[in-house]
Amino acid sequence: MRMISEEALQSLRERYPAGTRVELVHMEDPYNRKLVPGCRGTVRAVDSIGTIHVEWDCGSSLGVVYGEDICRKVDAE
């Protein structure tokens, strides 16, 4: 597990506040069966270890793990 600095954590929280729409780019989770690149969702929170918690449109609630997974902000739809 990668550790996140206070500066990086603050940056993530500023970049992905609750309500931000995101799109999944890459996820490293062998048990994930719903999420594929291109899935979109709404950020609920960024926790103390940098996981971006997302309510995905497909019904999943898997978080985007800092240093492992990748998502990007998308414009409001």
Describe the structure.
The radius of gyration is 12 Å and the shape is globular. The protein has a 4-stranded antiparallel sheet. The longest helix is centred in the N-terminal third of the chain and has 10 residues, at 6-15. The protein is built from 1 helix and 4 strands, in the order αββββ. It is α+β, with helices and mostly antiparallel strands. The chain is 13% helix and 29% strand.
Counted by DSSP, the helix tally is 1
Helical percent range?
10-25%
**Backbone structural class:** alpha+beta
Principal-axis shape equals: globular
Proportion of residues in β-strands: 25-35%
Describe the largest sheet.
4 strands, antiparallel
Mean pLDDT: 93
| Distance between the ends | 34 Å
Which consecutive residue ranges, at least 5 long each, have pLDDT under 50? none
Order of SSEs, N→C?
A: HEEEE
- Give me the side-by-side strand order of the main sheet: 3-2-1-4
**Rg of Cα set:** 12 Å
Number of strands: 4
Task: Give descriptors for this structure.
single chain; 77 residues; alpha+beta; four-stranded antiparallel sheet; 13% helix; globular
How would you summarize what this structure contains?
The protein is an alpha+beta fold.
SSE blueprint:
Layout: H1 6-15, E1 21-26, E2 40-46, E3 52-56, E4 70-73
Antiparallel strand pairs: 1-2, 1-4, 2-3
